[in-house]
Design brief:
The structure holds two protein chains of two kinds. Chain A is mainly alpha-helical. Chain A has seven helices and no strands. In chain A, α2 runs antiparallel to α3. Chain A is elongated, with a radius of gyration of 27 Å. The two termini of chain A are 38 Å apart. Residues 208-212 of chain A have low confidence and may be disordered. In chain B, 64% of the residues lie in helices and 0% in strands. Chain B has eight helices and no strands. The radius of gyration of chain B is 16 Å and the shape is globular. Chain B starts with a helix and ends in an 8-residue tail after the last helix. The chains are: A mainly alpha, B mainly alpha.
């Protein structure tokens, strides 16, 4: 069989009229999927902002307790503000990235390139989670623990204070370490393979002159 | 600018279901995966309709959306599908039993094994698209389309185990 004969067999076999699609039901489903997706995005952002705001109020309330010294107030205020900063960072970043999302009616090359830009941004974000997410509240909380320790040492013997003073920082390190580890795992297991896949696609389209 | 996106969507879907089916059939791994891909293509079509400017043929434009979705989708990502509804019976497309349908099945299997970009070039070539249309869909030059098509034809001949004898 020649290639042209194969092409003719293919074209003769196209049985589109045999396909029956309930376009009304499909449209409802597609709109439902779109609504569900947009609603999940909205509630995810809402949750993050709501949690940050609640944490902000609770920590600020705790900070301005009349018994607190200036160091405790300062460290707690920094923690509270960093909560707002992280939530704001999430929202602004998502808003910017939303505009850069690949558009499926663009040529394939442009679509792959914008997908790759998005994946690279996500990798950057997760790889640097320590710098933009964990570091500021982490340092502020450590300062808080140290100040509390110093205050306790003024009224209690060292033998009583020291063993329990490690609990707070240890929990903090475990939580923050866990967050960092999880983010790096997502990069390694999910994003790097996706990046390689897109780079492979780009290579498949390469050796070409762009016409866009 | 499309005046009535809902009517347009339904019309285009009924008119070009075969085209979408062929992309889904070539890129989907299993019945469930094809169903997912079909719905994802429909969703992207729906989202893209407001951006249709009428500069290209509707079929070329739909081909572009369908191929972009099939080629760039992240298989590991959870799909947006809420329900497991099957809107299109894929087995229907296999048509009448016989040598022709067997050849088409073998052809789909071979296309499925090609690299994703090469598979798209073969699909479009079999559907009779001109080099200029393929270049427009892929965003590459016509000469590059020719190079890719020749390479894909050779691979296809190998994958089809001697069925094609003029390569």
């Amino acid at each position: 069989m020649t290639f042209d004969e194969l092409k003719k067999t293919w074209q003769d076999s196209q049985t589109a009229p045999k396909l029956t699609i309930d376009s009304e039901m499909l449209l409802r489903e597609v709109k439902g999927n779109q609504d569900a997706f947009e609603s999940s995005i909205f509630w995810r952002d809402f949750r993050e902002v709501a949690v940050a705001l609640i944490m902000f109020v609770v920590i600020m309330k705790g900070a301005f307790n009349p018994e607190n010294n200036i160091w405790i107030i300062g460290s707690l205020v920094v923690v509270a503000i960093s909560m707002l900063y992280v939530a704001g960072f999430f929202i602004v970043d998502r808003h910017i990235q939303k505009r850069k999302r690949p558009r499926h009616n663009d040529p394939l090359l442009a679509c792959v390139e914008s997908s790759l830009i998005q994946v690279n941004h996500q990798i950057w974000l997760l790889k640097n989670v320590l710098w933009w997410y964990l570091l500021i509240p982490g340092i502020a909380m450590m300062v808080f623990f140290i100040v509390v320790l110093v205050d306790l040492l003024k009224v209690l013997p060292v033998s009583m204070v020291l063993p329990s003073s490690f609990v707070g920082p240890l929990i903090l390190v475990l939580i923050f370490g866990g967050i960092y580890w999880l983010n790096q795992l997502v990069v390694r297991k999910g994003l790097i393979p996706r990046k390689q896949e897109l780079e492979e696609l780009l290579k498949g389209l390469a050796n070409s002159n762009k016409i866009i | 600018m499309i005046a009535n996106p809902e009517t347009t969507f339904k019309e285009w879907l009924n008119e070009h279901a075969g085209l979408i089916f062929r992309v889904v059939r070539a890129y989907g791994d299993s019945t469930e995966d094809r169903d997912d891909l079909f719905q994802e293509i429909c969703l992207q079509l729906w989202l893209s309709i407001p951006r249709f400017e009428g500069k290209s043929k509707v079929s070329t434009w739909i081909y572009r959306v369908a191929l972009n979705t099939a080629i760039t989708r992240n298989r590991n990502e959870k799909t947006r599908r809420r329900h497991s509804k099957q809107f299109m019976e894929f087995r229907q497309q296999q048509g009448d039993a016989g040598q022709a349908s067997e050849i088409i099945e073998r052809l789909y299997d071979a296309v499925h094994k090609l690299p994703r970009v090469d598979a798209s070039v073969v699909l479009m070539h079999f559907d009779g698209l001109a080099y200029s249309e393929m270049a427009e869909i892929l965003g590459i030059s016509e000469s590059n389309v020719g190079v890719k098509l020749n390479r894909a034809k050779k691979q296809l001949a190998l994958l089809m185990g001697g069925l094609i004898d003029d390569i």
